[in-house]
Amino acid sequence: xxxxxxxxxxxxxxxxxxxxxxxxxxxxxxxxxxxxxxxxxxxxxxxxxxxxxxxxxxxxxxxxxxxxxxxxxxxxxxxxxxxxxxxxxxxxxxxxxxxxxxxxxxxxxxxxxxxxxxxxxxxxxxxxxxxxxxxxxxxxxxxxxxxxxxxxxxxxxxxxxxxxxxxxxxxxxxxxxxxxxxxxxxxxxxxxxxxxxxxxxxxxxxxxxxxxxxxxxxxxxxxxxxxxxxxxxxxxxxxxxxxxxxxxxxxxxxxxxxxxxxxxxxxxxxxxxxxxxxxxxxxxxxxxxxxxxxxxxxxxxxxxxxxxxxxxxxxxxxxxxxxxxxxxxxxxxxxxxxxxxxxxxxxxxxxxxxxxxxxxxxxxxxxxxxxxxxxxxxxx
Length: 380
Known about the structure:
Layout: H1 2-15, H2 21-28, H3 32-35, H4 37-60, H5 62-80, H6 86-114, H7 117-149, H8 151-169, H9 184-195, H10 198-226, H11 234-240, H12 245-280, H13 286-314, H14 319-348, H15 350-373
């Protein structure tokens, strides 16, 4: 429960402004690609900071890194309230993204080392379930709060939840298996080993493509639903993100399936689910669009569980650094998608975005099939 709670609280920060994009577009007179930078700035800094946070967590400890990352996250959330221009807001969001990986890579490595092997899959799915819930609550609550008190109020909410995360992270049991790696030569040696690991590189490719899909879909979906014929406000758009709650149900159920069948079978099944859901979103009735989004989102959640399990199966040392490299690729995909999908939406609308994200999800399945099947790791 503690791991799930921490996953929820850190992911509140990641996607919270997504339901606010139409509001921010009107306030700052920005197009889809420009306003998408509010998400993309965070994704870019998360990508850049993840390997560095991985090396830091390997040096000073996973628990300590998680605690201080949560404490420092309070500051940029409070600064965002003062932003008067879109570039300033993007700068603050970039700062948020530098700190978020401290929680993510620290917790993933903590789970891999401190949780007994028979319970590890359950612990990992609990954490991923928390991140799914945080993804929903961030979007939902920020839309709801913004409809009542303006978009600034949403960032006060994030400041408060990060403070709660700091207090809860202090309850993580002390590490017993951690061995520090503080020699820069050791870090560089581990980095070189990871960069020669074909299975790990394939997993990074999968991560890039699955988050490219998710961010491309939800960044542009909010703009689609704010326009004719739907004209949804920020609170109503926040309710649409209730499809994320399916991930809270699906991800724990999929834990035994992942443990029994392995990451590869899980990834291929998840990709098929996403592709079918994305096809359904090409229809016009709002209920069908929501149903399609639910299928697409569930596929991405399951893919993320498979990829995180694959990271830990492919390495035996410097796990935080390996997780950091994965997140470099994962959030790099989100940063690229924030811009590319925005331009595609401006040029071709939703009918152009769907083929783009279906292609990225299909390619994720292909990369996993080729990269994991030929590895020495037991991917299934």
